[in-house]
Amino acid sequence: MVKDQGYCSAYIFGAVCPKRDTGVALVLQRASTEGMNRFLEELSSQVPPRTHALVLIDNAGWHVSEDLEVPANLTLVPLPPYSLELNAIERLWQYLRDRYLSGCLSRDVQDVIDECCRVWNALLAEEGRIQSLTNYDWARPRQVKR
User: Fold this and answer.
1) Do the beta carbons of residue 79 and residue 86 sit within 8 Å?
2) Fewest C-beta atoms under 10 Å: which of 5, 10, 42, 138?
3) What whole-number distance in Å separates Cα of residue 81 and Cα of residue 99?
4) 55 and 76 in contact (C-beta within 8 Å)?
5) Is the pLDDT of residue 51 over 60?
6) Distant-in-sequence, close-in-space partners of 78: CB < 8 Å, separation ≥ 6
7) Which positions ≥6 away from 70 have C-beta within 8 Å?
8) Rounded to a whole number, what is the largest CA-CA distance in the chain?
């Protein structure tokens, strides 16, 4: 595998809907509360009308900041600390690293951002992939019998 001693990175802020087999993402140079607010605004705009979305989050500082502006059609659901196995999107991130991102060389941060965007779009084009990676049985809505 090609090895480079340089280092630059980007962050994919992403959320998926296993039921609809789709997702929304923003690729940004830095992880911050401002970036999270931009992402929540974009995610909110993609939620179908008359629908409310629950968004599982870990305890990253930009996920739990008091300065977050959470749109009315979203509810953030914090997961317990150190519980990556409960966050289905972690499987998706691992898949993207394994399938697309490991071993990539980039000239600069813009190349990294462009590659992350290309990879996200490739994921969306793989019919059924998001659902297969993130559709945990425990997370499916249940009908309550009365």
Assistant:
1) yes
2) 5
3) 28
4) yes
5) yes
6) 57, 58, 59, 63, 64
7) 40, 76
8) 62
Burial class (CB in 10 A: 0-12, 13-18, 19+), 56: middle
The structure tokens 């019919």 sit at 127
d(CA 32, CA 83): 22
Residue 140, pLDDT above cutoff 70: no
Q: How far is CA 65 from the centre of its chain?
A: 18
Token couple for 40 = 């929540």
What tens digit of pLDDT does each residue of 87-104 get? 888 899 999 999 988 877
Angle between helices 89-96 and 109-125 (to 10 degrees): 120
* Main-chain dihedrals φ then ψ at residue 93, nearest 5 degrees: -60, -40
What is the SS3 assignment for the chain? CCCCCCCCCCEEEEEEECCCCEEEEEEECCCCHHHHHHHHHHHHHHCCCCCCEEEEECCCHHHHCCCCCCCCCEEEEECCCCCHHHCCHHHHHHHHHHHHHCCCCCCCHHHHHHHHHHHHHHHHHCCCHHHHHHCCHHHCCCCCCC
